[in-house]
Amino acid sequence: MFRRVVIWCILISTLVEISFGSKVRHLRWEVEYMFGSPDCVELVVMGINGQFPGPTIRAKAGDTIAVELTNKLHTEGVVIHWHGIRQLGTPWADGTAAISQCAINPGETFLYRFKVDKPGTYLYHGHLGMQRSAGLYGSLIVEVGNGEKEPFHYDGEFNLLLSDWWHQSVQVQEVGLSSKPFRWVGEPQSLLINGRGQYNCSLAAHFSNSSAQQCKFRGNEQCRPVILPVLPNKTYRLRIASSTALASLNLAIGNHKMVVVEADGNYVQPFEVKDIDIYSGDSYSVLFTTNQDPSKNYWISVGVRGREPKTPQALSILNYQPTSASMLPSSPPPITPKWNDYNHSKSFSNKIFALMGSPQPPKTYQRRIILLNTQNTINGFTKWAINNISLTLPTTPYIGSIKFSLKTAFDQKSPPENFPDVYDVMKPPVNPNSTTGSGVYMLDLNTTVDVILQNANALSANVSEIHPWHLHGHDFWVLGYGEGKFSNKDEKKFNLKNPPLRNTAIIFPYGWTALRFVADNPGVWAFHCHIEPHLHMGMGVVFAEGVQHVHGIPNEALACGLTARTFMNDKGN
Amino acid sequence: MFRRVVIWCILISTLVEISFGSKVRHLRWEVEYMFGSPDCVELVVMGINGQFPGPTIRAKAGDTIAVELTNKLHTEGVVIHWHGIRQLGTPWADGTAAISQCAINPGETFLYRFKVDKPGTYLYHGHLGMQRSAGLYGSLIVEVGNGEKEPFHYDGEFNLLLSDWWHQSVQVQEVGLSSKPFRWVGEPQSLLINGRGQYNCSLAAHFSNSSAQQCKFRGNEQCRPVILPVLPNKTYRLRIASSTALASLNLAIGNHKMVVVEADGNYVQPFEVKDIDIYSGDSYSVLFTTNQDPSKNYWISVGVRGREPKTPQALSILNYQPTSASMLPSSPPPITPKWNDYNHSKSFSNKIFALMGSPQPPKTYQRRIILLNTQNTINGFTKWAINNISLTLPTTPYIGSIKFSLKTAFDQKSPPENFPDVYDVMKPPVNPNSTTGSGVYMLDLNTTVDVILQNANALSANVSEIHPWHLHGHDFWVLGYGEGKFSNKDEKKFNLKNPPLRNTAIIFPYGWTALRFVADNPGVWAFHCHIEPHLHMGMGVVFAEGVQHVHGIPNEALACGLTARTFMNDKGN
């Protein structure tokens, strides 16, 4: 009997192995600074295994990723966040310093081991200080599991990871943001496509009125343009993700339309666009068909949205084989929409719906948290605050301090669920009681939570910025966008039928965005503006749910602050 | 009976309090980056409590210093080494990352609590990565205990902390030193006196042939010159210490001779000089008498020794009161000796003897360690090696890994005690077996150890550099200097009568320096070239003695690496 059961077990587990074919993908990574010329200007960049951007991870849905990350920096800690991966059951692998783990010390190795359960286009990046801005990012692509099929057809695929780049060091940027008087980082010098841009020259100089000179490349430069070689009359999947520190972007392919099929690792109802908005933290898949004159090449251009751009567009070339890649396109690069054409942006966002058959949101919410986004001056420092509290991360990671009830580790008072009715979102902030804080929204496990992100006027009159908010540990449904101050009546406009599932959502100037998620993933999760300097200035909140159900946090994740002090043995030394 | 004892005890302890008057000096420090213009060019500097250089500590012999050091950096660890303080009984307070403690994490506080037992001129500085170069340093001055007297008279005193300054960030410098091909940091842009220098201008431009323009100051600039206001016909004590990253210096006062009375916190037989050599890590006290024309002011000038200088001399003004400080001296600044006038340097070093009554060295040694200093190429990286091993610090501090026998934490094989007889110190290195390593010289407690520092030719022919070697946890006697390769016959020339006690000693090009110390201070102690990039390139060794007698290491000092992993409880999580 026992033997028969064993044989059955072996058979079943073999079948599981065959049918899912899931693997553990072991990676050994070393993070260090290195010289690099992302936009043809040599600087120090943060690289992984000598590469910038870091290596692309490719896995299949159901696989386990095991990254042994060694910190080879001399004085800095490091963590890596796997953006878009929900970390079901592995909240300590979320890679958020001070939230899910202690930063990895110089010389030490931390094992990130987590399952990628859902196919899609993701990214990874640093989540300590502003190390993402320093170049610590890369792509994480999850293909459908063996035997599974994407709900669309394509003949080939490309991956574009977009970012922005400064010539001033991140260290100096950080000091400026934390100084009195405040010094802003300014607009990026370059936009990068797969870590490459061209400073002070343009591939398409002959089309532009600017004084930019023509870029000349022999082809082996680190900053050479990215070429996408295609065959005529095929359909390609273009994966696009943005790890910009600041810039909101728009991408267009000359003469080619695109069909959006995926957003943040979730399928969407296919829709056609001439250009696509990509905010920091967003990822998309689009399909395009090479149905144009095959004797020519075409520009792919990336421009800045939402802030008056001082950064030239980034260019890449769609190269119809066997045409030479060095033949520049004969028409000018597509001009991305005007930076402040918010109607264009809203129209795009409003076209995104979940693919039929996607999980639908619960019809009602159990808790509603309204988060007012304001820029404030606190003790002379310029900050962003949420319901008047600017987030300052504690020294001890919440995952440890909440689980083990170390109450002095962070502010025990919960942050407000709302803001005063009288607050005028159209005017500069009048909130004298702004403070910094480290309080947490404690969510009952499995609660359905609605979050209303409420935008407002910044410190200067007639300024309201866009902010892409990113949630860790969950996807949320984007129920709707609206203008002005949210009111309960707006609830009627919520899309409960086919709202898209995302991990990042924008709030438009002076507008609100309504999100819904189920707090079903035990852990502690950041929810924050994905603009790196904004997060640094306090623009985020922390959600915690079911932390008592979190088990097996590695010791290394807790070897700092109060958890280290509490759990280090008396060594009798 | 019991009551009488208690009363006696109270009386005695009161007397002790009165007779020694020793105090605990509590200090709360925060380390952070800030904008600063040390040499009139704005950059980011590492400061303490908003000051650069850090606050000067003044204490009396016998006092306890208690610095609560909070790391306010965003991503970097930090430690502070109290240079010249032997840390008797408190080896974990020595502030050497990876040796005496884990670096303090961002946001955390570490308590450095130690006794300053010996009057003298000391300094403190960062000892992680190249944070000293970034500006993390300050002065630590220990006056004689209450009721005690210095063995010399003076009417007033000044303190000059000398340093060198680069415009390239330390981060970029570090990457260059660790790159293939190697990129050297180059000569400093400026020399600083008490954190102030003048880049691209000279106070004494009208005396020089250079194209430097005249410096103009209103008096409130951060980079204004340091003024020493004096009264005529008085004797002043000038404390001088060097925390340079690279430069060997020489200081002279126009028209004034100096009498050297203290070196590295030890009294020396007074001797007169026109100028004084100060290597990185050195400290001195000199006396000078204001016996010159009181209607004039005089230059104090600091110039570079030992490397062909590309850095202008630093200037300060000796201001005879009531003459206006803004009246520039009428004679040119004293010209410090030619950079490669090593005879001048040797003559100075050979004039330093211990003041009569100073502790004398044991007449014999029990262990002799000969340390060959070579520049090497290891796997394509340019390094410095000692007996063919280039020091790479481990992740777990030795103080924990040795005490708790964590044998995988560092190389268990002891480094060599000597180098092959055939080695030609006059030629570029022929040592193909150079390696990196983390081995330790384990010293039996209370052993008398002789260290012979043997200089040699660097990688390029006909180059041999000077290196100031600094020992932690002890003073050593400098028994002598010699030319070429040390041989046992040289022992006869050792000065065993009145060798000076120091914590830093120079090796001259192609020469040797003999040191003796008693390994009587349980702990783990760095012994290294005090040139910051040289240490970074591996130019150091580690001594350990009586570590089993070390007790009470704070948990925070061990909350990293293998000690954290070993001593974190099973939390049952």
Percent in strands of chain A? 35-45%
The end-to-end distance of chain A, rounded to whole angstroms, is 55 Å
Gyration radius over CA of chain A: 24 Å
* Principal-axes shape call of chain A: globular
Approximate helicity band of chain A: under 10%
Instruction: Give the quaternary arrangement of the chains.
Output: homodimer
**Poorly predicted regions of chain A:** 5-19
Mean pLDDT across every amino acid position of chain A: 94
Counting DSSP H or I runs of 4 or more residues, the number of helices of chain A is 6
Main β-sheet, spatial strand arrangement of chain A: 10-9-14-19-16-17
Strand tally of chain A: 34
Main sheet characteristics of chain A:
6 strands, mixed
For the largest interface, the chains and their residue counts are: A-B, 49 and 49 residues
Alpha-beta content class of chain A:
mainly beta
What does this structure look like?
- The structure is a homodimer of 573-residue chains.
- The first copy, chain A, has 573 residues and is mainly beta.
- Chain A is built from 6 helices and 34 strands.
- The first copy, chain A, has a 6-stranded mixed β-sheet, with no helix packed on it.
- The first copy, chain A, starts with a helix and ends in a 6-residue tail after the last helix.
- Mean pLDDT of chain A is 94; it is low at 5-19.
